[in-house]
Amino acid sequence: MATIPASCIFSADLSAIYRRDKTSSFGERRRNPVLKRVAVTTEQTSSNSGTAVTTSGRSFVQEKAQRSSEAEAETSLRRVNVEGDWEESRKSLKDYFDEAKDMIRSDGGPPRWFSPLECGAHSPDSPLLLYLPGIDGVGLGLIMQHQRVGQIFDVWCLHIPVKDRTSFTGLVKLVERTVRSENYRLPNRPIYLVGESLGACLALAVAAQNPDIDLVLILANPATSFSKSQLQPLIPLLQLTPDQ
C-alpha cells in the first residue's frame, strides 16, 4: 500500500488511496464501489489487482497535484498581468514635472485639498490618507503611487499655491481642522498623515496638538534637524532672493 501524504488526510476531498476500503457496521470490510470500478478497469491490463488499485490511487493523487499546480500557475500569471498593467499605467517623474507646471501656472487662492483622479473610487469605509507636501507645496509627491494607494485609501493631497504666504502655524490649523472634522464625521475611520520634509513637521505638530485623536504618522525625510543640516551655510543666500 502506498504511503498517504498528510495533505490527503486533512483535505476535504480525500484521496482515492485513503478511501480504498470501508468497514461496515458488522465489522466486514467492503469495497468502495467507485474504486472497485477503477480496479476492474485497471485489472484488465494487469494481473495483480492490488497493484492496479495502488497505481490508480497514485495516478489520482498525481492528477490532483497537477491540477493544483496549474491553478497556482494561472493565479501567479494573473497577478503578474495585473502588476504589469499597473506598471505600464503608472505615472513617471516626467508626469510629475508636467502636472506640477500646469498647477503652478494656474495657481491662486489659499491652500486647499484635492483628490487625484488616478486614485479612482473608494468604499465609504476606506481609511483617510492626508498627504502633506514638502516646501514645493504642489501636493503631487505620491503621483507614482496614486493608483495603488487609491485602491486602499481615500486620498486627499494638500496643495499650497506658490504665491500663498500662509504661516506654518496657519497650515497646522488648516490640517487640524480637517482632521477634527473627519474624525467627528466618521469617528471609527483611521486617519493617516503622510508627510514629506516640511509636511512631516506639519504632521508632527498636528499629532502633538491632538492627542485625543488616533492618528497614524508616516514621515519621509522629516525636516526636524535642520540645525544639523549641511544646508546651513546656504541660508545667507536666501537674502539675495527677490521677495516675491
From TrEMBL:
Gene3D superfamilies in the record: alpha/beta hydrolase
SUPFAM superfamilies registered for this protein in UniProt: alpha/beta-Hydrolases
Residue ranges with Polar residues bias: 41-59
Region (Disordered): 40-77
Stretches with biased composition (Basic and acidic residues): 64-77
Protein name: Serine aminopeptidase S33 domain-containing protein
